[in-house]
Amino acid sequence: MTMPRAVSDLPVLDFSSVEYRSAPFPVLSGWAQKWKIAQSERGVELLDYELCRNAIVDRNLGTGHPRLIELLGLPEGRPLEYKRNSISFHDRGDRRRDLRRPLTRLLSEEAAESFRPDIREVVTEIVDAIPTDRPVDLISSLCDRIPSAVYCHWVGAPMSDADFVARTSHTVQQVHTRDPRHTPAVVEAFETLIDYVDERIAARRRTLGEDLLSDLIRAEDAGQLNADDLRNWVIKLAEANTDNSSHQIAIAIIELASRPGIWTQLGTQPELVPRAVQEVMRYHPRTISTSREVLSETELDGVALPQGTPVFANVGATHWNAEYYSAPEVFDIDRTDEPLHLNFGGGVFSCIGRFIVTVEVEETIALLAERFPGLALEATGFAHSPMFTSVTQLLARLEPEDSQRRAMPSRYAAS
Ligand code: HEM
Fold it and tell me: Pick from 220, 235, 257, 386: CA 20 to 30 A from residue 28's CA?
């Protein structure tokens, strides 16, 4: 019988190298060719598709969120209390299932489809307001605005709140840096967000409408949620929504508009947009890894993992693994029979907003490609952490014609 290996025997990955930070996917893919499992400063790293997918749904791997918050050192107070009671701190079991149920229903694939006309209207209004005679910062004028406007729509708030919603989401998501220097700003942003959410809920209780918050209040009235759970969900939706969605919308614009052939095709054949968006989420996902923690001592790929070991499923490595995706470094919107990307995790921890954000990205790309076949990327920038892809710059000119097209090559434009 072979003895399981110890974590300390595993190869050590360095996410701080210049190579990783500028182009992580070839680096992750190279690591995955050598090892299925490794270690890093933050914990155990899974690099193989099968291993990651199994870990994501493994009953013996629980949420990594409590440890993250411990690392940040959030002081006692309302933000920490919110975190402790929110979905993120709950492991598998009835409580997690009951908490998720109303939200998975209200944000299901069918519900997201029924929101599509509203989302199209939101995207159209936002795009209509962008000047076309000069380069514009599409992060603030478009990518941030879409998910934050959708959130305002959900909670019956005026669109003038969208900037606050976007800013707050970007700040509170800094917990994922695992860097306590961000803690004071995170705490302050949560304090303001909690007050905001309390006001919104009180206002909506007075007059119910046809929005998500009103539906959640109805779910509370029907006994499916209590008042604290309702409040925690409305905070959670603000927390998780804008930051992730804005970056993924920006990534999609850069990856697609930097390929003139594909951009033109999407402008005339909108039915191709969903496939193109799926390929963006495989090729250049917002999520590079998702975290878990070992609930009781276990073994993964012949490695003994003590209770409490942080485990990271490296989604980015799986998406660029040639055993699962043929020529993974090639951006190919015609891929059909390959496994689903893992950008939204999976199982009982899977992303609640996955359908809605997919509709947001699709509607944005469909409208931009149709209206602006000459969309010119003037300056773009990415930052990659072990956890996320972030877009740091997206300056573009919305050109109605493509005659003066000045597309910038993508950092990943291998195809
Ligand atoms: C492209 C944008 C987004 C990406 C890439 C993303 C990604 C993820 C990932 C990777 C997870 C963890 C899944 C796992 O570990 O199995 C997650 C969880 C979650 N996401 Fe998203 N997300 C996005 C947008 C959204 C939006 C728009 C919402 C809200 C409507 C949302 C709400 C949530 C919530 C509530 C969870 C926690 C679920 C739980 O613990 O049960 N996300 N997301």
Answer: 257
Task: Name which residue sits closest to atom 19 of ligand 1, judged by CA.
Answer: 351
Tens-digit pLDDT profile for residues 14-71 = 999 999 998 999 999 999 999 999 999 999 999 999 999 999 999 999 999 999 999 9
What spacing in Å lies between the alpha carbon of 273 and ligand 1's midpoint? 22
- Say if CB 300 and CB 55 are below 8 A apart: yes
Answer whether residue 414 is part of any domain. no
Ramachandran sector of residue 145 (left: φ over 0; alpha: ψ -120 to 50; beta: rest): alpha
- CA 131 / ligand 1 centre spacing (Å): 32
DSSP assignment, residue 129? Answer: T
CATH of the domain at 362: 1.10.630.10
**245 CA to centre of ligand 1 in angstroms:** 9
Ligand 1: residues with CB < 6 A are: 56, 87-88, 100, 107, 147, 236-237, 240-241, 244-245, 248, 286-287, 290, 343-346, 349-353, 356-357
Number of domains in the chain: 1
Structural domain for 271, as ranges: 5-397
The residue type found at 21 is: R
